[in-house]
Design a protein that fits this description.
There is one protein chain. The protein is of the alpha+beta class. The chain folds into two domains: 64 residues; 129 residues, 2-Layer Sandwich (Beta Polymerase, domain 2). It has a five-stranded mixed β-sheet with strand order 1-2-5-4-3. Helix 1 packs across helix 2, helix 1 crosses helix 3 and helix 4 packs antiparallel against helix 7. It is globular and about 55 Å long.
């Protein structure tokens, strides 16, 4: 029992360090946890906290250290996401990640899932808009890799460029409900859902 208690305490400490990295550097959860191990001088195979525990620590860090800035920054990112969801409406965009869950700061990127009849259609749309992009492969919500188009867009409210990642899915992937997380939250939301959240955030 004492050993388990010690492991739990260590996981919480790792989560706290990783949370600071997530907020201050805008890194993903996996990278932040590995960076935390390195900063703490722990072996690479040390048991890591799960994402739910890390997200709790991120929310706690934001409440303690970023209470004055976080609401306005989150609102700015959500407004920017709305603009691009409207521009890409033909691809049935859904938002996921920190901007959707409410833990994003000015260091966070925006992640939109696009559901396309033709996998190349979103790429053609960016070309037509004269928006430079970088194709890449990222982990998808089913666990397998998916194609993504990454662009940098300027956020006027924050006065700096923000990373926008468009994850490309087939239209059939939109069917069926995804399981909610441990807090009962949906893993993604459409434009109407994001607008509803936006009205709940005041700068």
């Amino acid at each position: 029992m004492a050993q388990n208690s010690g492991m739990d305490a260590l996981k919480q400490e790792i989560a706290a360090v990783a949370a600071r990295i997530v907020v201050e550097e805008g890194l993903g959860f996996g990278i932040a946890k590995r960076r935390a191990l390195k900063q703490m001088g722990l072996p690479p195979r040390t048991a890591l906290p799960d994402n739910d525990q890390l997200e709790f620590e991120v929310a706690d860090y934001l409440a303690i250290f970023c209470a004055d800035t976080h609401p306005a920054e989150l609102r700015a990112l959500r407004e920017l996401a709305v603009q691009w969801m409207q521009r890409l409406a033909q691809f049935r965009p859904h938002i996921a990640g920190a901007v959707w869950y409410g833990t994003a700061t000015r260091h966070s990127d925006i992640y939109l899932q696009l559901f396309c009849d033709d996998s190349k259609s979103a790429e053609i749309a960016l070309i037509d808009m004269k928006v430079p992009y970088e194709p890449r492969t990222v982990p998808g919500f089913h666990g397998h890799s998916v194609d993504a188009l990454s662009v940098h867009i300027f956020c006027k409210l924050l006065g700096e460029p923000i990373g926008l990642h468009l994850l490309i899915y087939d239209f059939d992937d939109l069917r069926g409900a995804l399981r909610p997380d441990a807090r009962g939250r949906r893993p993604r939301g459409d434009l109407a859902a994001l607008l509803a959240l936006l009205h709940d955030v005041t700068p």
